[in-house]
Amino acid sequence: MSTTVSPSSPPGKKLPTRLQMMLAIFTIWTAVGVVLAVPDVLTGGGWPNFLAKVIEAWGWALLTPIILLVGRHISERVNRLVWRIPILVMFAVPFSFMHTYTAAVFLFPIRQVTWSPLRNPSYAVFYFIGGMVMYCAIIATMTTMQYYKQYLMGQLELERVQRKLLQSHLNTLRLQLEPHFLFNTLNAISSEVEDDPELARGMIEDLSALLRVSLDFKDRMEISLSQEVSFLEHYLAIQKIRFGDRLNVDLRIPPEMASALVPCMLLQPVVENAIRHGISKRTSGGAITILASQADRYVELRVLDDGVGLPSGWQMTTTKGLGLTATRERLNGLYPDVKQAFEIHRRDEGGVEVVMRVPLHIMGEGADE
Fold it and tell me: How many CA atoms lie within 13 A of 135 on its CB side?
């Protein structure tokens, strides 16, 4: 079966960059000439004065590209400003001379303009002095723009470096979490190897599936909430084998929140902390509830347990636990503009509540998948 491909419509023609720059220079100098001519017209100078000012500005429009070219070459070869400025000022004499006689040639056909240097040489001095002032103004503007551009480029480079440092820090935190989680899980499995080999074998199978999912997401900072929950369920399967009926987990994830993007491996360290420090310390076990909801422009995740609760005097800033500390730092690094991105509260009925907030972004809706 043959396929016919219709020719694409020709793209819109764009002016070359140099021509665009020339038109911009011409337009700017025309505007300058009009502005300078307005006072003469208002005082009764008539159209010859108006036209003379515009023509003088057009003379600078012809010379400006050459001035910019010379200035660029000098800037590339002379780095120190203390040497560059005097060299640029030295060119004021030839450029002022060129503008004086360029304007004189253009103004000569207009008989009403009696102050043309070709008609009255005494006016050449005024043109020359005015030309030097205008040249210095052009050089000052050009130098200011060059330094402003360098400043902007420096700021952009600084932001790139800061982003790379932040990304490196976040990757380090995540790499710290993964062996920490693996060590704790292997520890749990080793405690069951002699007493219940069949149970240990099942835990190893779940751990294998969990590591496979972890490798699938290793290069991604954010994944969908449904993928994060899938990762968490593999971990909970290991813990359910270990604790049996002593551990109850209630996952309440609304379908409309399944595509929301969250940091990879966000829930697991919080749930692990709830099991290790809350549920496992109770003989009767306990329950963990994981809630997801939309709060204004944020995804709000809550992990609640009914364990032994926080010890007296406990503070987030002084805790040495890696899981909660790394999770808090990751959230603060990824979303510095989100207030209260990570909170821990004591529950009145006993246990702990952890609240995490991330900006609401839906996978596929302008988000990086």
Answer: 26
